[in-house]
Amino acid sequence: MRLGELLPGADLAPSLRDLEISGLSADSRAIKPGYLFFAIPGHKGDGLDFASDAAARGAVAVVAQRVAASAPPLILVPDARRALALAAARFHPRQPTTIALVTGTSGKTSVVAFLRQIWQALGHEAASLGTIGLVDKAGARYGALTTPGPVELHEILDAGAGRGITHLAMEASSLGVEQRRLDGVKATLAAFTNFSRDHLDHHPDLEAYFQAKMRLFEALLRPGQPVVVDADSDAAPRVLSVLRARGLEPFTVGAKGETIALLEMRPRALSTALRLRHENQEYEIELPLAGAFQTSNALVAAGLAIASGDAPARVFSTLSRLRGAPGRLELVGEKNGAPIFVDYAHKPDALEKVLQVLRPLAQGRLIVVFGCGGDRDQGKRPLMGAIATREADVVIVTDDNPRSEDAAAIRAAILAGAREVDPAKASEIADRENAIRSAVAGLGLGDVLVVAGKGHETGQIVGGTTYPFSDQDVVAKALGLNRKDVA
Ligand SMILES: CC(=O)N[C@H]1[C@@H](OP(=O)(O)OP(=O)(O)OC[C@H]2O[C@@H](n3ccc(=O)[nH]c3=O)[C@H](O)[C@@H]2O)O[C@H](CO)[C@@H](O)[C@@H]1O[C@H](C)C(=O)N[C@@H](C)C(=O)N[C@H](CCC(=O)O)C(=O)O
Ligand SMILES: Nc1ncnc2c1ncn2[C@@H]1O[C@H](COP(=O)(O)OP(=O)(O)OP(=O)(O)O)[C@@H](O)[C@H]1O
Ligand SMILES: N[C@H](CCC[C@H](N)C(=O)O)C(=O)O
Ligand SMILES: [Mg+2]
Predict the structure, then answer these.
(1) Pocket test for ligand 1, best of 145, 183, 202, 403 (most atoms within 8 A of CB)
(2) Which end of the chain is more exposed for a tag (fewer CB within 10 A), N or C?
(3) Whole-prediction pTM value?
(4) 130 lines ligand 1 (CB under 6 A)
């Protein structure tokens, strides 16, 4: 593709306009002969420092947002990240015709998984993309990020559309939105789940985190497009005013929802009976998922399917067959009649919600095994320690992904919060496998165990190395089962 077609807004000399470009990258290490290099001012480094490396590998031009001496010609743009996203969308032009972007602190992975299942059940060629990778009827392919960088993202969209995917449900992380990863995506609708503390290692404060999410509605959607909002979220009124200001069409769902009103919710052991109203029609649904938050996520997904044009009665009829996303309140086994769950709660609000959901199932003790990741928000550690100790009966603090941090110091910060609530409830077992084994070994009738924080993850990051590790596999081993025998 010609440079002039990739950067239509840029002021290009005629000699540059017709330059043939064979690929794009913001990473000099991925540059091949004939590529266009985008120099991004990043969080750790400045891409311009790698322009000569890119040139040595064959870059024919550099796109940057400030002037610098550069051996291949330098093209100045106001926003290099956005220019990259728009160029990637032109270079890989095909996209599914229906694309739903889902944002919010918690529930994104679950909502996109549910929406994919609803669309598939209704006969659409559907896929989901996010923390657990790209999932379609061919299976799951994991990626490194929840919202991939723009070049990888548009490769995925183009190849997916080429395979016949018409419907894509996609997670929009706050970092992805802020870093313009999604600026070339032709989104047709969106959703907002909820808002609580997360990513404070990156955003300066909660307000900046909130505003990063709002850019999805302000910059990535067009007026008139539908946005499904969980009306029961504390943040819903603020989000709705952002939507109104932008001329977007709100669809509210939940107990306070108008589009889909949740009239009644009766929790059973591992499912939830729902009574809903949509346009004066009532529906009774047996949702095969436990927990009020899974009901919220399912209603957001149903709202998205309806907003995308599917018939409401058909959409509601699919809900009784939904399966949870891997590692989200996943029942992985039982010991002496005590159920064992693996969950991805790695932030305070999620941990509180999951323990509150499990509390009624515990005739005996509610036991939680968890830790916190290194190189992430340090402030959440004592908060999660305190929440676990308030909501559970037994708290075993262990390692999550320590990354570059001292794992003992992470555990100590969690325990400090726990001990302020009740020093007798919390203990520490550094090795995650030993912690899980010990918790499983102690289970008795009526107890409930949840292993939280790593969900679907298949590795544990210690220093710069990722060691194979799966909470599900460790539970299975502790139960003396092969993983495939487990629920
Ligand atoms: C903090 C953060 O989000 N960083 C992301 C960001 O990096 P950055 O732009 O700040 O890059 P940088 O490291 O400062 O480097 C600057 C530039 O120099 C380039 N470079 C660097 C070295 C070199 O030799 N040559 C070279 O050209 C880099 O490619 C980059 O373009 O853009 C990169 C390309 O898109 C991402 O890979 C990178 O994700 C890092 C690895 C990451 O861990 N991000 C996590 C925190 C993240 O984004 N998480 C969210 C939320 C998860 C959720 O809640 O579910 C996600 O969407 O996954
Ligand atoms: N609607 C919700 N409200 C509160 N907590 C939730 C909700 N949905 C899920 N959770 C909790 O958050 C965890 C993560 O859920 P999920 O993966 O669906 O969210 P996410 O937004 O994709 O999170 P992440 O940003 O970590 O990828 C779950 O394991 C559960 O503990
Ligand atoms: N997307 C989240 C995942 C955290 C999962 C948890 N296991 C950890 O490593 O902290 C993050 O990068 O903050
Ligand atoms: Mg996710």
Answers:
(1) 145
(2) C
(3) 0.94
(4) no
